[in-house]
What does this fold into?
Amino acid sequence: MQVPLLDLKAQYATIKEEILPEISNVCDSQYFALGPWVTEFEEKIAKYVGCKYAVGVSSGSDALLVALMAADIKPDDEIITTAFTFFATAGSIYRLGAKPVFVDIDPDTYNIDPSLIEEKITEKTRAIIPVHLYGQAANMKEIGEIAARYKLVIIEDAAQAIGASANGVNCGNFGSYGCFSFYPTKNLGAFGDGGLVTTNDDAIAEKLKSLRDHGQKPRYYYNMIGGNFRLDSIQAAVLLIKLKYLDQWNEKRRKNAAIYDNLLAESVVKTPKIDEGNVCIYHQYTIAAPKRDDLNKFLSDNKIGSAIFYPQPLHLQKCFSELGYKQGDLPVTEKICDQVLSLPIYSELSNEQIEFVAQTILKFYNS
Ligand SMILES: Cc1ncc(COP(=O)(O)O)c(C=O)c1O
It folds into this structure.
């Protein structure tokens, strides 16, 4: 049996008949950048997330960048975030000349540890970017209280968390900005790059719309400097179709996760810990495993896909060396980077495939 980490072809097969005619409609319209599909997508996804506005942009990375630009982040401003995330979370901060300030993570959820945030706040701190890692909301209650106390902007990196919630509130709705990615491998994936910024603030929504189009408003008049962060019509058309299935796909991922949880319960690996009140969308199902690299190879030898998100924490990346971090600064993050392994969790997996993955893991530790 083969079990790839992700099988996008299996998902495509279920919606191909709907997708192809709609792409053809976009081609017939010759409307490619922004336009009616993007507007309809923005309306529907805002409703889905439960926020007032959604602004379609070119990628999750650009969603973060444009949100930071809209928040007027300037060189030397400090932004608190996690080092256990995809590069773009901190890369977007650095690109504006601002400084990412990394805080260690909770050893169970791997999200930023709110109890360590306050000691990193200085007079230069302007914002917090919590990441809802692997599809589970960060502790937004505590983060929200800290942000309110110090008047900090919250920019959620919800790239991995479309449809996730905490205590009935959807990710993308906790901060002033919610940033999403529609990279093809995401739970809601486009046929190329795409992203979104959500907000409940009228003025912020207007600013984001202007910034994604070079800062113009009206056309060819520029009051601020933005960029080309527009979302394509074809991507919006694909996303509109996929959005109809997102809840059922996420539900199936949760069922798959429950099977793994059960089969691995007595093993030495640590299965994901979901905080009370959280609905996780399992963008990744990530275990912490002793002898992780050997297990990774053993799974690969048995034709099972697995991946390490992320092998090197951001505070130790060469490109951030001038920030002055060293090994040992974020002990939990560093330890977890050596242990995590993400298993196949996509919604088209069969129970047999999940059982095969779990049995192969048990076999590795019993041999
Ligand atoms: C946590 C996180 N932030 C930001 C991004 C960037 O999104 P994109 O790849 O759409 O630019 C990703 C995508 O992998 C992500 O996982």
